[in-house]
Amino acid sequence: MNEMDMISNYKSLVSSLERQELNAAMNGPASPQIYGQLLAIYLLIHDLPNAKLLWKRIPNEIKQSNSEIQAVWNVGVKLFKRELSDIYALVDSVEWPLHLNNIMNCIKEATRNRMLNLIGKAYSSIRLDVVSSFLGYDETQTIEKIHTLGWQYDCETKFVTPKKMPNTMDDSSNATFDDLMIKLTELVSFLEN
After folding, report:
1. Rounded distance, CA 188 to CA 157, Å?
2. Where does the PCI domain lie (predicted)?
């Protein structure tokens, strides 16, 4: 299963998790597992506004007693600050519970693909060590990855010549923006009527 399929599968879980949170709210807070998964999926699909709102909704007792929710939020903070190259080590530094492990690894890979897309768009040539830093790989892994993409690498100068990545890499963030615009339009329409 490719990354886009996995993201689509997780995206389809959002409404179910939101319903579970809403149903649980009638009897008290939702379970830490629901909050953790929903927060992680919001980050995965790059729905940062909903991630922030969820973080504010999670009761402090749950935030303080569940280190994995705080760890998911720490990854989110890196996304908000656009410190994308810090995400890899942060994700790898935590022993994620089963309900979060795959989602967090998808966040890491989606971030890596976002970085590859940005490099392909922004650079005509770039030093290998900088690419390695952006991707969270060592130089050998970076060379292997860039060769699979058809990028050129000059061993003598240690410069990489990237190719523009296909637009499919950032479709999830565009879809999220489109979804937000639809919600905003519906809200304005509702308020006007």
Report:
1. 55
2. 5-189
The residue with tokens 């989110």 is 76
User: What pLDDT, on a 0 to 100 scale, did the predictor assign at position 26?
Assistant: 83
- With respect to residue 144, please indicate whether it lies within any of the assigned structural domains: no
Q: Which domain holds residue 107?
A: 3-122
Question: What pTM was estimated for this model as a whole?
Answer: 0.77
Q: Please count the structural domains in the chain.
A: 1
Residues in CB range of 102: below 8 A, 6 or more apart? 6
Q: Which of 118, 134, 42, 146 is nearest to 84 (CA)?
A: 134
Q: Which phi and psi angles does 128 have, rounded to 5°?
A: -60, -40
- Residue 115, in any domain of the structure: yes
Residues contacting 104, CB < 8 A, separation 6+: 40, 72, 75, 91, 94, 96
pLDDT in tens, 157-167: 999 999 876 65
3-state secondary structure of 159: strand
CB 124 within 8 A of CB 161: yes
